[in-house]
Amino acid sequence: MSRRQRSFFPAVAEIRQYSRQNLPDDLVAGLMTAVLLIPQALAYAALAGLPVEVGLYASILPPVVYALMGTSRTLSIGPVALSALLVANALSGTAELPGSPAYVADALLLAALSGLIFLAMALLRLDVLVNFIGHPVLSGFTTAAAILIIIGQIPSLVGVDVAAAGSGLDKVAATAEHLFELHLKTTLVGLASLALLLLLRTPLVTALERLGLSNKLAGLASRTGPLVVIVVLTVLVANFNLDREGVAIVGAVPAGLPIPSLDFLRLERISALLPSAFIISLIGYVGSISVAKSLAHRRRERVDNNQELVALGFSNIAASLSGSMPVAGGFSRSSVNFAAGAQTQLSAVIGSILVAAAALYFTPLFYYLPKAALAATIVVSVLSLLDWKAARDAWHYDRADGTAWVMTFLGVLAVNIEVGLLAGVLVGLGSFIWRSSRPHMAIVGRVPGTEHFRNVQRHGVQTWPNLMLLRVDRSLFFANINYVGDEVARVASEQSELEHLVIICSAVNTIDHSALEALELMALNLREAGITLHLAEVKGPVMDRLKHTDFEEQLAPGRIFLSTDGAVHALTSFVASNTLEDETEQSG
């Protein structure tokens, strides 16, 4: 196999170097991940409005494909809450009923389109695109999305029918309107599920640690909570025939594995679903790469951003071919996989085999599974997405970041997911453009006895009446050069004895053509006013570009100094010598 093929399939090198000592860890991690994955897969499929078996299908072939192509050793691929919500949101405006064949076909098409978008991004090296989604925007989005998910599960928790269409506020109003029509026994099942799931988290971990278990083992034990709750409540519903008394159950789940098919391909639906597929891909990649890098850093491992796009692309294409919804890296499952000691992606393959076995042989056990328990599983799983601390921290640290969080949050809740995400991105970009167009500038002086130069407004520094040092803390380009020019003119006019003005370029990484022309005009205008413009600390890449122009000729008699200290020595000596010559001429 060629080097290029090996880079395309990182698993090949791991297989060749695989140590049998890692097998027990991978087996345990695969088992633990499958235990968590099965109830989550069922719940997330229901969240997306799909038959529950679709969640199982999404947990079989896609993880195996990622295991072959992904660069993270512990990332667990499968259905996730945010992708499920985005699928439901994308298909809520269609005339198809949730769970219908046409609805399922659209969900598979979304997975295929997402996969193709991932591959296109990889081909064009657009992994940097996700950098335009700042953390405040992502936090505001996930928090609002979690609230939408929770609101959407309330009807299932209490057994009422509520229209799913409309914004988040519409759903809140509709849910509140029907809340008093709740079905008592369904509500009891739902509340019992919530209580048990919450008790099996931190309280269980604390109790087990007090009994002597390590934090790792206690945490893994608590992760089995969703499966335990589902088993207990399924048995309860079956034994007491609660389904006959109005408690909604999953019902018959087809046994077997999906047969690969392209029947979902409907060309007329592509244009309508493409925008939603793009958002699913973007959010899926941001979430996946964040989890993958977080876990990789703990083991000093490396994750290849672009190869992750390739792996996610083919995983989603595999999902569509195997009859399942879009997939991404899940935080809770990946954390369990990591904590259980997974050494390689063999753990994901083992987990997939176990889920496949469940799809083949154990689906009859899901018949009496109450939908309220699935709803509770979803609610508890998304509680970690509620990130109020990020909102508070962002607002206190930077009003612009806080505004981006708020705009994203309100946009998602009050309008829709697309508008909220776009609003947050635009606020973030607008803030960046505003700051870039008004760079911080400081008059600096020398710290006595050193070669360090600091802001005159912050430190006690040495200055000179004939010389001004002006530091610009941003690259110079068309959007900010006029502001810089205005500031230069203002500070120059305030110092009547000024003869030399040095712009310190230590923070200037680029100078575009517009800025270059403006600097030449600035040098001319200052020269006519009796002031010579100089530059100092120009970075190598910037200097390389300037050498291809006649800028140094336009700057003359101004100079470009290697350091600010060098500029001060040269220009203060020049001023001193000129002053001495003038005094000599006058005395003569």
From TrEMBL:
<feature type="domain" description="STAS">
    <location>
        <begin position="457"/>
        <end position="571"/>
    </location>
</feature>
<dbReference type="InterPro" id="IPR002645">
    <property type="entry name" value="STAS_dom"/>
</dbReference>
<feature type="transmembrane region" description="Helical">
    <location>
        <begin position="409"/>
        <end position="434"/>
    </location>
</feature>
<feature type="transmembrane region" description="Helical">
    <location>
        <begin position="368"/>
        <end position="388"/>
    </location>
</feature>
<feature type="transmembrane region" description="Helical">
    <location>
        <begin position="188"/>
        <end position="208"/>
    </location>
</feature>
<dbReference type="InterPro" id="IPR036513">
    <property type="entry name" value="STAS_dom_sf"/>
</dbReference>
<keyword id="KW-0812">Transmembrane</keyword>
<feature type="transmembrane region" description="Helical">
    <location>
        <begin position="220"/>
        <end position="240"/>
    </location>
</feature>
<feature type="transmembrane region" description="Helical">
    <location>
        <begin position="27"/>
        <end position="48"/>
    </location>
</feature>
<dbReference type="Pfam" id="PF01740">
    <property type="entry name" value="STAS"/>
</dbReference>
<feature type="transmembrane region" description="Helical">
    <location>
        <begin position="344"/>
        <end position="362"/>
    </location>
</feature>
<dbReference type="InterPro" id="IPR011547">
    <property type="entry name" value="SLC26A/SulP_dom"/>
</dbReference>
<feature type="transmembrane region" description="Helical">
    <location>
        <begin position="101"/>
        <end position="124"/>
    </location>
</feature>
<dbReference type="GO" id="GO:0008271">
    <property type="term" value="F:secondary active sulfate transmembrane transporter activity"/>
</dbReference>
<keyword id="KW-0472">Membrane</keyword>
<dbReference type="Pfam" id="PF00916">
    <property type="entry name" value="Sulfate_transp"/>
</dbReference>
<feature type="transmembrane region" description="Helical">
    <location>
        <begin position="136"/>
        <end position="154"/>
    </location>
</feature>
<dbReference type="GO" id="GO:0016020">
    <property type="term" value="C:membrane"/>
</dbReference>
<feature type="transmembrane region" description="Helical">
    <location>
        <begin position="272"/>
        <end position="292"/>
    </location>
</feature>
<dbReference type="InterPro" id="IPR018045">
    <property type="entry name" value="S04_transporter_CS"/>
</dbReference>
<keyword id="KW-1133">Transmembrane helix</keyword>
<protein>
    <submittedName>
        <fullName>STAS domain-containing protein</fullName>
    </submittedName>
</protein>
<dbReference type="InterPro" id="IPR001902">
    <property type="entry name" value="SLC26A/SulP_fam"/>
</dbReference>
